[in-house]
Write a structure and sequence with these properties.
By secondary structure, the protein is α+β, with helices and mostly antiparallel strands. Helix content is about 15%, strand content about 40%.
């Protein structure tokens, strides 16, 4: 009987978590150089999730000067600064001279993208978002961080999401290739009830006959 109870609890717990990964949103557009207007790419998300518990953002860029870039993600009341002149400091006011990004942003990463970019070449891996919600002209490694992806926790993921990116300094251009979302959260109540019902059905089928 114990193992059947554990099965029921496991299936019911699993029903309380779901993950939706969006396909790559292809943009393939050159980001205007030294222009704060930038590019705002808005995409609609439809999922069974009603409350976000976690989120990751994948971003792909090619070329350019990564230290020029400012980017944020917004949806409903959520807002997170992904890039804000990464590498910029008092000692290096031009920011990181690395070129191109193929990265995943997650609050659970160990590296802050602002302080962890190399001095050259393309960048790959998992990073915390920059999170410095400050004018890009003033963003430094020492600036306070507040705009993390955790701002989306508890929100309904369904609806429009916007990823904005701009090149804030002259000299080179980047190409905004694509982006995607990986959202974890709580599904609709009907999904939870279905899993619980399945668990109870299995339990009844395995009971020995009297």
């Amino acid at each position: 009987m114990t193992k059947f109870i554990l099965l029921t609890l496991s299936l019911t717990a699993a029903a309380h978590a779901a993950t939706v990964a969006t396909p790559d949103f292809i943009v393939s557009t050159t980001i205007p150089d030294n222009n704060s207007i930038g590019i705002a790419d808005t995409r609609a998300v439809t999922s069974p999730i009603t409350s976000i518990s976690g989120i990751e953002v994948s971003l792909s860029l090619t070329g350019g000067w990564n230290g020029d870039l400012y980017a944020y993600l917004s949806h409903a009341g959520g807002f997170s600064v992904l890039l804000n002149r990464s590498g910029r400091s008092l000692a290096q006011p031009e920011g990181s001279s690395s070129s191109g990004l193929n990265v995943v942003f997650t609050d659970a990463a160990t590296l802050d993208i602002h302080t962890s970019l190399p001095g050259s070449g393309p960048v790959t891996g998992m990073f915390q978002p920059d999170a410095r919600n400050i004018d890009p002209a003033n963003s430094l490694d020492t600036s306070p961080r507040s705009a993390f992806l955790g701002s989306f926790a508890g929100l309904d993921p369904n609806g429009d999401w916007t990823l904005f990116i701009a090149d804030m300094s002259p000299g080179s251009t980047s190409v905004f290739q694509s982006w995607s979302l990986n959202i974890t959260g709580v599904p609709e109540p009907s999904t939870v009830m279905l899993c619980a019902a399945c668990a109870m059905f299995l339990l009844r089928r395995r009971r020995p006959s009297p």
